[in-house]
Write a structure and sequence with these properties.
Chain lengths: ~425, ~350
């Protein structure tokens, strides 16, 4: 084994102290102990450059444009600006790979991925990046195509990068959570795999993210972090197991239950009976989850399950943080037709945004610019009072279409009544 | 005419998209899909879910360094093979979860993870793993490192990861630029630039698509200009809010600086609809030095805020709910953090963030 000249890393060494697992120790293990000289060298270069960043407090990677054959995205190119100092890692691209819906893996699959990655890459990976991709960090320009070809053969595909539909996320969901109200994985895969072309070939105004959470606890951060948030909910009454509830009250005492459950209900829809039963005003339950989060043994979501869809969430750039807005208060997702309807809606929204969004403008920013009503009319969705916190407070509005709009409202109400 | 050179045949990709997770699920989870009744928290880091069928699945959650080398990954896989039938799951905060339906394997699994250096915890009212970005390790626009900040902080809060001492769960995030890939958190440690970009006018004309750079600026502070006879861009430094939005599309507009790129701390971001509606995080502290390798100044502020929350928060109150109950003046009083003109919003919709009532705590 040729002797390697190790770059000194006095600042990074400090991050090996302390109890939390150290990423520096991991990179050093690759540098020092990996049987493949290429991997030892690449990680030596990486540590050298990272130490240089720590010393100068600056980053030294620049982007570029590369992709695998047939795709336009999915890879984050990284070329070092200090490659002359640390030539071993001067090309250090990341491949974004879509995880299975729900992030379930077998150890066999992860070993298989690790074996391929060792052959072609640095030996460093992350589960997962903030969009939800598996990040294979550190491949050079000669290798990334080989790595992709190899893992693509056994079932893995690239995620999105650039102005395109991005990799989606779904929670642990129905597989292991009693709060689940929908088939999160089916929704995630149905949506994402309908837009495979838009994932691989960036041609939209900017990024577009789908996220699926099985209940309003929204563990996938869908409302704040996705353009299209699908959140499981139910529209009948929640299920209360009075026996289990009374056992909880007996164990904790009435005062504790008043302080921690009854008085904490957002819509003040709970009260405690003299016989310690739980009394719920179901017409005012807003599905704010607290009671079932505290007493999951006694309170369960209802049986008439479905989803609420919010659109337009995103982080800061350019106009400031935006939460998603309710666009569909409730829809069932059970039959094939239900799923088709969901996909059609997503297509409608993406098409409308692709046509009307400005360059680098997220869907939510477009809605902000053109107003929700124009968006709704553009995608063919009727206004609904669940979309708003409260009606407008400004009188600057033209109302000369009022009578027709009111008639449409009454017609819709009549149709809904007849349908139910 | 010479024969055309043999062209290398490239392999066509299989556009399989997102793989089906169902096949990779623990069989007990597959059997009881959508049929879970309730769960119990056995101990920090350990959950048991009970299905209507009566079957149970135990979950053991551990923290890792997130940037995993193949050795560490294989070490974790060995543990999975031995104790969780070879099935694992990752949470959104990069915690790793091992599942088993065999109760007798739970404590040995916890011990195996702890022995291998992976803390078991991160459930319920703990400080769970921090969401973070790529930082100096891999990003092209980072103002700081991310993995390093997280390592330094989690060393400090290691015991809180492994216990249930907080009023409710604490989600922390960190981001190495103001785009904030780390997202909303109960506490977010984010880069805050404090000086306008330094422009290399010799490069702008060739490297940057100038109209789209002009369009990126949130405050319209950038305009095209000729500098030294070359087409470039100039920044109205009085208008500039130092957000760095121009830097990604135009690298010659360097926003990062070893001194003026600093850290700010934001609190009260909460994604959940539990109790209240989701909330955005709020600026509480800025001017914190970007001080590798351990960022002690940032850690000290975070620690102080967490101590106050731990002491003052009621059961189930997330950070934002605690502050909402005690009020912002009290927050600044108990944490000892200065309240400044920079805390007062002046972006669009700012007046919604001002107090238009006589509701004042004395």
């Amino acid at each position: 084994m040729a002797e390697m000249k190790k770059y000194p890393t006095p600042m990074l060494d400090v991050l090996e102290d302390g109890p939390w697992p150290s990423f520096i120790s991991g990179i050093k293990a690759l540098r020092d102990d990996h049987p493949d000289e290429r991997i030892r060298n690449v990680n030596n270069g990486l540590l050298g450059q990272l130490e240089h960043s720590y010393e100068t407090r600056m980053g030294y990677w620049k982007g570029g444009t590369i992709s695998v054959f047939g795709y336009g995205g999915g890879i984050i190119p990284r070329f070092s600006e200090v490659g002359d100092k640390f030539p071993e890692s001067k090309e250090f691209h990341t491949l974004r790979v879509q995880p299975p819906a729900g992030n379930y893996y077998t150890t066999d699959m992860l070993r298989q991925l690790a074996d391929s990655w060792e052959k072609w890459g640095s030996g460093l990976q992350t589960f997962h990046g903030q969009t939800g991709n598996i990040m294979f960090i550190g491949s050079d320009s000669a290798s990334y195509q080989h790595f992709f070809d190899e893992i693509n053969e056994y079932g893995w595909d690239l995620g999105g990068a650039g102005p395109c539909v991005r990799t989606g996320m779904s929670c642990v969901g129905a597989a292991r959570c009693e709060m689940s109200n929908c088939n999160e994985q089916a929704i995630h895969r149905t949506l994402l795999n309908n837009f495979t072309d838009d994932v691989h070939r960036p041609a939209l105004p900017y990024k577009f993210k789908f996220k699926v959470s099985g209940c309003p606890n929204d563990c996938m951060n869908a409302i704040e972090r996705s353009d299209f948030a699908v959140i499981g909910t139910w529209r009948d009454h929640k299920k209360i197991d009075q026996e289990a509830w009374k056992a909880y009250v007996a164990e904790k005492g009435r005062e504790h239950v008043m302080d921690n459950v009854i008085s904490r209900c957002t819509s003040k829809s709970l009260s405690l009976g003299d016989d310690n039963s739980l009394i719920a005003d179901e017409t005012n339950c807003v599905r704010s989850m607290h009671c079932m989060n505290v007493v999951p043994k006694a309170i369960h979501p209802g049986d008439d399950k479905g989803v609420t869809i919010l659109m337009g969430g995103k982080r800061t750039l350019k106009i400031g943080d935006l939460m998603g807005t309710v666009i569909v208060p409730f829809m069932k997702l059970e039959t094939e037709e239900d799923y088709e309807q969901l996909v059609e809606m997503a297509e409608e929204v993406i098409d409308y945004w692709a046509e009307n969004g400005l360059e680098h403008e997220r869907c939510g920013e477009m809605i902000e610019r053109i107003g929700l009503v124009n968006f709704l009319e553009g995608v063919g969705i009727d206004p609904d009072p669940n979309m708003i916190k409260q009606p407008r407070n400004s009188s600057y509005v033209r109302t000369d279409g009022w009578d027709e709009a009111a008639e449409e409202w009454f017609n819709r109400v009549r149709e809904q009544k007849m349908a139910s | 005419m010479s024969a055309p050179a043999a062209k290398k045949v490239m392999r066509e990709p299989i556009e399989s998209g997102c793989p089906d997770g169902f096949q990779y699920m623990h069989p007990t989870m597959r059997r009881n899909y959508g049929q879970w009744k309730y769960h119990e928290d056995v101990q920090p880091g350990v959950l048991v879910h009970v299905a209507y069928s009566g079957e149970k699945i135990y979950t053991v959650r551990c923290g890792t360094q997130r940037i995993l080398d193949v050795f560490t990954l294989r070490k974790l896989m060995d543990i999975g093979d031995q104790y969780s039938d070879g099935y694992i799951h990752f949470t959104i905060r990069s915690n790793m979860e091992f599942q088993t339906d065999d109760e007798s394997k739970v404590q040995p699994l916890v011990a195996a993870l702890e022995d291998a250096g992976f803390p078991v915890g991160g459930t319920r009212n703990s400080i769970t793993s921090m969401s973070h970005t790529q930082g100096w390790l891999h990003c092209d626009i980072p103002g700081t490192d991310a993995s390093g900040v997280v390592k330094a902080m989690m060393d400090e809060f290691y015991d809180e990861f492994k216990s249930w001492n907080m009023p409710n769960r604490v989600h922390m995030t960190t981001s190495c630029c103001q785009i904030n890939c780390g997202g909303q958190g109960d506490i977010a440690i984010n880069v805050q630039h404090t000086k306008p970009p330094k422009i290399d006018h010799s490069l702008v004309g060739n490297v940057c698509e100038r109209p789209s750079v002009v369009a990126r600026c949130p405050v319209a502070a950038i305009r095209p200009a000729m500098v030294d006879g070359k087409p470039s861009l100039e920044v109205d430094e009085k208008k500039c809010i130092c957000c760095g939005a121009c830097y990604p599309p135009c690298p010659p507009m360097q926003i990062n600086d070893h001194q003026y790129t600093q850290l700010a701390i934001w609190i009260g971001g909460n994604h959940s609809n539990a109790r209240g509606k989701p909330t955005f995080q709020r600026l509480v502290a800025a001017g914190i030095p970007n001080n590798p390798p351990r960022w002690p100044e940032a850690t000290a502020v975070v620690k102080k805020i967490l101590e106050c929350y731990k002491e003052g928060g009621r059961d189930w109150e997330r950070m934002n709910e605690w502050v909402e109950r005690i009020g912002w003046p009290r927050f600044f009083e108990v944490t000892g953090l200065p309240f400044t003109k920079y805390h007062i919003d002046n972006w669009r919709g700012a007046r919604n963030n001002l107090n238009s009532s006589t509701h004042i705590r004395f």
